Amino acid sequence: MNLERMLAKCKKFQWKVGDLDWDRAPPEMSKDDEIAVVQYFTDMATIERLAGALFVEQGKRTEDPVLKEIFATFVKDELRHAHCAQMLADHYDVHRYKVYQTNPALVKFFPHFVYSLRYINPEFANLYITTGELILDVALLRSLNDFVNDEMSQEAMDKINQDESRHIAIDFHMVEYYTSEEWAKLLEDEPSYSVTDTIRAYWAYANVFRYARPFFKEVFFEPMERVDPSGKRMKEAFKRIQLLGSKPRVRGRPISKFLLGLQDLHNHPIYGVVFGRLAVRILGVNPEVLRTLYTDREAEIANRMSFEDMAAEALQLKYA
Question: How big is the CA angle at 140 (ends 174 and 129), to the nearest 5 degrees?
Fold first, then answer.
């Protein structure tokens, strides 16, 4: 990837929430739909702040000055998205049926995941970030926008999607970097963890796995059951995640072996019956997306593709 060109795009395509036309009247909704939509946008505002905090941490960890600047623009993007999501929540909160607050599962997950970036090998956190961005961009935002079916939401989502496309491209770029020989060499040259740092790392792992299940369930999977009952888009997102994990360079990394091992355990005809629930609990996602969602032929094609091309293909799903 040409990072200089990406940075130029990041600077060129900045926008302001005030650029959108907020004077349009919201559509009529049932009480249940209005409550659901306002809650989803309220949660989305916090999800975007979480993404911004993650990009702050990634910016601190990189030594590449161009990549550092790119992450700085991503932080601005996510804060703008959070502002936009909150304004959308207020826009559709016509009847003031209740006082809306961020989902408690998201509130609990937030600090532990940010903490994990500081004390866990960053390739682990990047896999989670890439997964979250794909779920949000390919599945949740598209489906929520279709569910609302309103010009105000469409205009906002068009702008947000433009930014998220750049984010996903860099997510895939970072996956490529964390599976490179350059990264492996850096890890070899790093001093061994102290006892304190090791304890911190295990504590971070434990809390991410502890809070991941309720977070994914209540913030991603349950809303998707309402806005996309077929489950097609969620499976599309996880199919791309699985194909990324099928690439030999990714599959060979220790953290990938661990995560993919849990998936294989869940799908095993014998051990899956006994340990399948444990795998679901640790990974945090619903069982249907732990099944293998791609064919052998699709895996062969993905393994020949560059990471950049895989990102571009995943982004095309937004417009399907």
Answer: 20
Give CA–CA dist 35/132, Å, rounded.
24
- Inter-residue contact 34 to 92 (CB < 8 Å): yes
Q: At what angle do helices 195-215 and 271-283 cross, to 10 degrees?
A: 100
Q: Domains, the chain, ranges and CATH?
A: 3-181+193-230 (1.10.620.20)
Sign, Cα dihedral of 85, 134, 222, 284: negative
pLDDT in tens, 278-314: 989 888 899 999 999 999 999 999 999 999 999 999 8
Query: Tokens at residue 57, please?
Result: 């941490």
Q: Model-level pTM?
A: 0.90
Q: Is 129 helix (H, G, I), strand (E, B) or coil?
A: helix
What are the structure tokens assigned to 254, written together? 């220790």
Provide the pLDDT confidence category of residue 132 given band limits of 50, 70 and 90. confident
